[in-house]
Design brief:
Layout lengths: L15 H10 L8 H4 L3 H15 L7 H15 L2 H13 L5 H8 L9 H14 L6 H8 L4 H24 L15
Helix pairs in contact: 4-5, 4-7, 4-9, 7-8
Amino acid sequence: MRFKLETLDQLDTAAQPLAERVLKVSSDGIGGPFNMLLKSPQTGSLFVDMLDHFNGNFSHVPPLARRLTVLLLARNAHSSYAWWSHQRRALSAKEFTEGQINAINERRKPEGLGKMLDAVYDYVSALIQGTPTPGVTLTALRTVFDEATVVDLIVLCGTYTTVAMILNEADVKLPNNEINTLKND
C-alpha cells in the first residue's frame, strides 16, 4: 500500500466536511480517488467542485461525450479503477456496446459512434498525444460543439487525467471479486 487508507473515524476535523459531502454523492464512499483528496481537504474540496461541475451536468459537454472522454483517459493512463468504474457504468446504462468498449480498450476507434462522438474521440485522442491537435480534428469538433464546450472538454480531460493519476499513485484496487479488464500494453 502506497498511502495509508483513511477511515471515517480516522479523519481529522478539517477533512470531515469534505467526507460528508463526498458520501452524499459517491458510489465509492470515501474510496476511489476521494481517500487521497481527504488528505488535503482544501485542495480536495476544490477538486470535488470540479467533479461536481462535470458530473452534475453543469458542463456544456454532453453526458455521452463525457463518458467517452473518461474511458479514453482511463485507458491511456492505465488506470484500472477508473476503467472498471466507467466501463461498468457505460455498459449498465447502455451508453456504449461491449464491442465499442472493447475497441477503446484495444486502442481502436469504435464503430457506430455518430458524428459528435467521432469528433470527440478524435479530439481527445489527439489531446492525449500531448501535441497541438491537427486543424482538421479541431474543425470537426467545432462542427458539433461551440467554443465554450470545447474549453469544457479540455478541462474535463485535465480533471480526469488528474483522477487517473491519483488512483494510480494511490494504487487503488478494484473491489473484491471484480476482474480487471483493462488491457496491459
